[in-house]
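Researcher: I need the complex structure. Ligand is magnesium ion. Inputs:
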Amino acid sequence: MNAPAHVRLVDVSPRDGLQNEKRPVSTEVRIGLVRRLQDAGLRHIEAASFVSPRWVPQMADGAAVMQGVRRRPGVRFAALVPNLRGLDTALDAPRAAWPDDIVVFGSASESFSRKNINCSIAESIERFAPVVAAARAQGLRVRAAMSCAVGCPFEGEVAPEAVGRLARMLRDIGAQEVAVADTIGVGTPDRVRRALDAALAHYDTEDVSGHFHDTQGRALANTVASLDMGIRQFDTSVAGLGGCPYAPGATGNVATEAVAALLHDRGFTTGIDLARLMEAGQYIRNALREEVAPA
Ligand code: HMG
Ligand code: MG
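Model: Output:
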């Protein structure tokens, strides 16, 4: 009998989840969340973002988080890096606090690129190229997120050709994996399939992942459509936290709890202990309630 297939879930709640909270969550809570995600068996955690604190104040403590977490062996930590300045900050720490993976983030739509990282798609690729090269030279793995791969809050529907063009440019500068991101959760299984196909023209199946926000309640259906195409990696967020401050209307990522349960039902392994994952979700829900409660 074949061994059950494994699906890799990257929990992005400490980053995508908490970047969108109106009031910054304390460093202690973010470290507490990361610890509980490790306890729940997550082996990939997106823990920080080395972006401008003027753009996203919620992520200003990335270095403190990376230095404060006690890492379990075998757990890979990822961080978002928009430019060389961000990479320098990420690596200006003891090696043990470096991210294992960095994520550059581009957009398939011009308008979102400008709103989110203040440059055109072409400029973003020029900016990412030295970041990718420097990160790989240090032995880090580089992923690239492709935002607005099915729809844009400013331009509406995004053509798969735009996703294909972006994937090709990212491959050409050396990004090793790409995430097809439905930033505002407007995808349907058909549209997600077309976006994935466009990415798969330039990347092997094992190097393409899905990053689905659940704004319109279709993220699980989009996950199933991706699984049927052979995709085995997804970004998910415990408690369904998430959203991008520069994407009006974007709500949370699909919940890690929901995706893990669906995968286990279908016979996939994830390494995740669902009961402990629920505890991690409860922890962050409680912490958010307490931290945002009026004094
Ligand atoms: P800019 O204003 O064009 O950049 O922003 P700049 O080079 O002119 O610098 C402006 C200021 O920021 C300067 O400071 C720089 O030093 C500083 P000042 O001199 O004015 O005091 N700065 C930095 N500080 C810390 N770390 C840095 C950094 N870079 C510059 N790395 C920039 C361009 C890209 C920096 C800005 O637009 C930015 O930080 N954007 C990030 C926005 C963001 O984080 N969005 C959310 C994450 S993406 C997302 O959620 C989508 C995803 O989940 C997938 C999906 O769902 O679609 C990944
Ligand atoms: Mg996102």
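Model: Summary of the prediction. The first strand starts at residue 8 and ends at 11.
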